[in-house]
Amino acid sequence: MKIRLRGGLPYVTASLTCRGQQLSFRNILLDTGSAGVIFSTDRVLTIGLTYEPEDMVHRIRGVGGTEFVFTKRVDSLAVGELQVDDFQIEVGTMDYGFDIDGIIGVDFLVQVGAIVDLSKLEMYSALK
Predict the structure, then answer these.
(1) CATH of the domain at 15
(2) What is the number of structural domains in the chain?
(3) 54-87: per-residue pLDDT in tens?
(4) Is 17 helix (H, G, I), strand (E, B) or coil?
(5) 108 lies in which domain range?
(6) Pairing verdict, β 9-18 and 114-117
(7) pTM of the prediction?
(8) Which residues share a beta bridge with 72?
(9) What is the four-CA torsion angle of 106, 110, 114, 115, rounded to 10 degrees?
(10) CA 87 → CA 2, 32, 69, 76, 77, distances in Å?
């Protein structure tokens, strides 16, 4: 998987499948400082992924401040050939002051055994 630099930050393309519907995202920040994966509420609404009463709601903290998010289990999350099935994501407003569809965090990276090679701007799995 190729990594693109934009504004000095690493971005990847990801696809999310939920209830049989797939959605691709181009503006996904690759963030080894983020514990989890989060997607923009506005973007996932296009496949009907919305808050439901049984969803867990919690507050997350980061460099940009705090926000409330809800969690969802999705069929799969893939970044290139790296894929995890039955994966839990967070969904929030992601009003960080720049255009972003989501963040890939350490929970996904560990499960796929990701190696982030910044000298080649590539990400691949050590598990293969």
Answers:
(1) 2.40.70.10
(2) 1
(3) 999 998 887 667 888 999 999 999 999 999 999 9
(4) strand
(5) 4-125
(6) unpaired
(7) 0.92
(8) 89
(9) 80
(10) 22, 18, 16, 6, 7
